[in-house]
Design brief:
single chain; 760 residues; alpha/beta; Rossmann fold
Amino acid sequence: MTDPLTMLEGISAMLDIRSHVVSLIRTAKFAASDRQKPIAEDSVEINSAEPWELTFQVLNQDDTGPRAQFEQSLRYLGAKLGKERFSLTWPFTKEGLQEMLTSIERQKSMFAIALTNDSIRLSAAITVQAEEITKGVDVRIVEITKSVDIIRHAHESHFQAFESSCLEVVDHIHGLSEGTRKKREILSRLMSIAFEATHADIASRRANGTGERLLETREMLCWLKTPEILRCQGIPVSAKTILASLVIDKLRGMVKEDLNLGVAGIYCSCKEPETTSNLIGSLIRQLAEPLETIPRSLEALNRLDAFHTISGLYSKIMIIVDTLDECADRLDLVKQLLTMLIMKSATKIHILVTSRKDLTDVERTLKADLQLDIISRERDVRLFLQQNLRDHERVSGWIIRDTVFEASIIDAILGRLYGIILLTLLCMELPADIPTKRGIRKALETLPVGTDDNYKEAWVRIGSQKSQQAKIGKQILAWVVHATRPLTVQEVQYALAIEPGDEDLDLEGLLNVPDWTSFCAVLIVIDGKHDLNTLVHPTRQEFFQNQKEALLPTAHEDIAETCITYLRMKRFRSYEAIHFQADLLFNYAALHWDYHVCCADNDKALSLALQLLDDENGRSTAAQLLIERSPSIYWKQRIGRKVSMKPVHLVAYFGLSRLVGRLDLNTDINDGSDKTGSPIYWALEGNQNQMLKVLLEHGADANALRFQAYADARSGDSGYNSYPLITATKMGNITALGYLLQHGASVDQSRGGSTISSLL
């Protein structure tokens, strides 16, 4: 049986022939109009019950069927017309042609009728099939809906069971969390020192194998066994901190085998000074942290009683205090440690202290049972140098691969530093900056000897850079050395991006942090634990403090100008903007601009201060942080509002006594009518006794009453207005009392139920 595709191909060919014949007829010359028109279509009504496939089979019979006859007629006509295409005139043999055309028209009509009829049948069949499919789909939808309902009911049942289980788990976790939260609340009140972060940072910089021999010394072994005080002393930067971190790690390893052993440590720092109370609190917290439960009474006790309570939960306690010489109040800390030994009862307490050698006050007070001199041995220093050389990101790979040349670099550095380990970081820049062996060898031959000489050499290297790099390096050092506290990386970034006269901050001026160390010849490091910029060691701080006039003569003036320029920027026109910028340079600039003005103590710095004081928005910006930090309820209610602040108020609070003569004090010095109160109280609250004296000498009234709304701000007075003498008495400021009495303050004053006699 002929397939449908073959039949369709035959019909297509037949129609092509017909089109060709008609086109030939239309090209005949002088053809009558009735022959130029399409041949009339015959319409025949046929009702056929044959399916469409049978119709095509009949039409497509091989040589005798209608398709074949139609094709034969068309081909004959085409051949006939093709021979005489260019000379044909009308009429030609009309009888033969008429018969041929009639036959063709009849055959065409049969095809058209057959195809039309089959199209109708096909559409009907499709409609029937579509209805059957629709019915089937409806049935499936009903079945699926029933299945979904069954699944949903099962899911709801399982979910309810799961939810019930989850609630039980949450209740259990909540119980644990509540206990943990209470424990952390108690511990958080003891101290806020990030000991673990400091220890992890120091331990990460310790070369493998460094200091191991110190753990095997007679003094160390004796201290581990006997509850005594061991003092480890050495010259500056002789790896005392490395030893302390090593001992802490060793003791923590012992805790895994003996849970009755408690270990706690302190890393003292002159750049991050802490009170003795906080340091002792850090020890208590480290001892309490591993315990599952801690006594509730711990938070109500003083530091020594709390230590006595917590130490009673251990059979042995090991305490390590590193760099005692850098403690802000080292003698007080030593006395507290000795008191712990007296209170120790049944608990054995071992104390290890590292410090410099030349601390006679510590030596007299501490009276250590054991003493160990720390000398950086060649092997330890060599390991340290090798690790830093190989970890240095700018040292070429060919130096590290040449082990002989690497050893010669280390030998040259060892010969000039006399056991001072950390100073070798300065020398690591030589192989990083010089591209040839010959150049490195020459540089090593001229290495300076001693601490100060190394710093001077580093300063020379900073100045020998390209002018812009040298300028940036000195600016970074100025901020790191002369800032009143350690600065974050972001604070220094913003400080260096500010130029005199800037009305807003240009973020395109921010420096790329990785470049800082090279700009400063490795005199600074980025402290990863706090994201701080610091000098590598306190000896560098001492060097620059002693050499500040020669090396950084305008540092305070430049820092003051940057702070004041920042506070006067357009971005600080609303409280929201100030609050948003609080994590950038704002905190430092608002609280310390006055310090740098006073340290600079020259006409330019004072002129800069006057520019800020004459700028109403600048004054409000500078005062906003003071208001936020005030404990007064009066000021707390005004946070977020623009504060009306006169120049004399800020001058009084910050103690800028040299500016008093440049201000108009005729109407302001005793004016307590506005919401900021009388200037004399700002001097008292800023603890500026010298400023108080200057104000009194310029006519400030020692008996001036401050206005009612400001009665209890910062003084704790629950009454209404207060007098300066009562305020100074409540603050315990004896010096201020003397100045006030000298200038006529009355001792018979009474306010809010308080009198001078009742307060004394």
